[in-house]
Amino acid sequence: MILNAYRGVLRSIKSRRSKEETKIIRKAFNLAVNAHRDVRRKSGEPYIFHPLAVARICGDEIGLGTISIVCALLHDTVEDTSITLSDIDKIFGQKVKSIIDGLTKISGEFDFTSSSQAENFKKMFLTIPDDVRVILIKLADRLHNMRTLDSMKESKKLKIASETSYLYAPLAHRLGFFSIKTELEDLAFKFTYPNEYKAITNKLQKTKDVRERFIQKFANPIKKELDSQGFKYQLKARTKGIPSIYRKTQEKGVDFEEIFDVFAVRIILDSKDEKADCWKVYSIVTDFYIPNPERLRDWISYPKQNGYESLHTTVMSPTGKWVEVQIRTNRMDHVAEKGLAAHWKYKEKFENDTRLDKWISDIREIMENKSRNTTEFLDDFKNNLYSDEIYVFTPKGDLFNLPIKATALDFAFSVHSDVGAKCIGAKVNSKLVPLSQTLRSGDQIEILTSEKQIPKESWLEFVITSKAKYKIKQCLKEEHKEIAANGKEILKRKLKNLKINFSENNIKILLKHFSFDEHIEFYYQIANGNVNLGKIKEIGLKGGEFYLSSSITKSIKNSFENLIKKV
Fold first, then answer.
1. Is pTM beyond 0.90 here?
2. Could you give the percent of the chain with pLDDT greater than 70?
3. Which label site among 284, 291, 396, 528 has the fewest CB atoms less than 10 Å from its CB?
4. Which of 21, 60, 80, 274 is catalytic?
5. Phi, psi (5° rounding) for residue 119?
6. pLDDT at position 409, please?
């Protein structure tokens, strides 16, 4: 059985490996088998089946190559066995060692209420600029763990499922892996809401024949016309994810039977003249069925940030039901299913994808600030991972993708952090608008700036992108420190005039006297004129030092022993 699983791994990259690469994979397989011998999973099966399954997912479902297969086979060896990174380096080289090291650092579970555990997930995002394969292998690892989650304890199932729903499914979505995203969502929902999952699954099964007859009747006239015009194509029907169906029943307050759009019809063309042919097929579809103009989505002219390209429309069927139709080519479908890995196949150099470059650059900029609250970062970043998109333009015609509900100020920060920080106004479609103006697809935005402008705390009330929030908070923090430094100088001069030492003991007593916990906030309020320094004279003074009773002094010492001692 183990050898059969191994042969399955080899078949998954048959067209992408040489004889020499096969030898390397065999070497990794032998090492993994030996390292995990006598170890079993919770299900009772030999542990080696897990890395083999992860490797096959990397090959079959993500489309990765030999190095990734090797790393998938070895991904648990350094953490769980006696094998070291040095051993990996000697046998397979620096690149494999680096990826294994990245996978080892982000292993385990994450408790998102804990900043220390959230820091582990931050490490995973930090690997993206260095080698995105770490993330892709981790997604494969998570997918197999979710597929085999039944053997776990209930508490463990719920924790892993929640974690998957919170970040892994959105991450798969952001990286363009539609099938993996949908499966992760469905599996997470299965373990988080088992009763609702079972109910919807049963209803989908019971209505399967009715849906298939409906789709056949709907598709027949389209297929006849496509055939008559000589198109080479596939026509598929895709049932929407169970969580998506459940959300619709909750949002609309209706039963399952009243949700019409539980599936989408997908037309996949074998075409080289992609854009023209997709629009021709759109014309054919809308000749038979009336489209809803508000539901047209042109992701061919303006691809999503994850590379997704398709033409979506929603049309009215003869029975009065809305049907979503997706039109794309084989290449577009491959990109939609394989995500980032497909870009390697269709681009000579993956680095040429400027959309991904910008996203990676944003990750790097946000993460390089070590003082950033990690849990807060994850909340912001997760929201941006899964947001719908709009497409807007600069006056020169440059295209920018932004989350839906993004404002003019979000756009300014998207152009550049400094542009956002200096922004004083915006023109949308040549009309002056407030910075809080919500943007729509197709808007043309001109940003007005001033060197005298500084970010305002009120800006945080209407920006929605993690980059804008991060940069505003960073600027406010720096401004706060500068003002606090001025306040510190004011206090020094005041104490000097009163012939009082600027000592650690005196500052502790002043903090206690004026009811402050932190030095910086105390200095900041002094600078803003919110501290009556005349009350300093109320404190006992001897030889330039304040004094209090011994019991109060002891209390102050205990209260302030962990405080920051300087700005």
1. no
2. 82
3. 396
4. 80
5. -60, -35
6. 95
Asked if 520 and 458 sit in the same domain, the reply is: no
Burial class (CB in 10 A: 0-12, 13-18, 19+), 156: middle
Q: What values do phi and psi take at 435, rounded to 5?
A: -65, -20
**123 pLDDT band (50/70/90 cuts)?**
low
Tell me the average pLDDT of the chain: 83
User: How many C-beta atoms surround the C-beta of residue 432 within 10 A?
Assistant: 11
CB-neighbour burial class of residue 450 (10 A; exposed 0-12, middle 13-18, buried 19+): exposed
Q: How far apart are CA 453 and CA 477, in angstroms?
A: 16
Residue 366 has pLDDT above 60, yes or no: no
The yes-or-no answer on residue 150 being catalytic is no
pLDDT digits (tens, 9 = 90+) for 84-95: 999 999 999 999
Give the HSE-up count for residue 332: Cα atoms under 13 Å, Cβ half-sphere.
28
Residues 56 and 112 in one domain: yes
- 312 in a structural domain: yes
Give yes or no: 80 in active site: yes
CA distance 29 to 20: 14
Quote the domain boundaries for residue 419.
387-464
For residues 117 and 221, the model is more confident at 221
Per the listing, tokens 């809080």 go with 436
